[in-house]
Amino acid sequence: MDDVILITELNDFIFCPASIYFHHLYGSRDTMLYQNEAQIKGTNAHMAIDTGRYSSDSEILQGLDVYCEEYRLLGKIDVYDGRKKILRERKRQIKTVYDGYIFQLYAQYFSLIEMGYEVRELQLYSMADNKVYFVKKPSEDKVMLDKFEKLIQDMRNFQLGDGFIQDNIKKCANCIYEPACDRGKIEC
Fold first, then answer.
1. Residues 6, 24: contact at Cβ < 8 Å?
2. 3-state SS, one letter per residue, for 168-180
3. At what angle do helices 99-114 and 142-157 cross, to 10 degrees?
4. Is 10 exposed, middle or buried (0-12, 13-18, 19+ CB in 10 A)?
């Protein structure tokens, strides 16, 4: 059984497990059909990383494909500074540091460590207001590491057909897939 989890899905699952299903359902269709303004801005904010234009410095790795064997996680890093040994996950705007952001960073961290890189510092970066949020490494925060590992286990055990209903109406109201979803509390 292929149980590899995409790093981006860690945050998505916390938001709503059904969103992962819809993301795969829409697949390669034009994102303009279903993305809202916030998602479009987020995609545009990552464009410099995705196209390798963030930095021409050879010590700055950007958009590197990574895999973590221990947790079977696959994805990309945003930015790793090889001189300073800093791993940074960039977000368009961070108003709240959500667990999902930290877990994406953990997945990138574990991947880089397995690949032989040294990581001294973890950061979340809010591009809109130029703020840096320092994140403790997993070995320095047992509570968050336990939550990270539980999330991965929950994701591997989750079945959408087991009667899942999203009971957080605020999440449904902010979900780009809500019009097509039958797993929420919003009534037509």
1. no
2. CHHHHHCCCCHHH
3. 90
4. buried
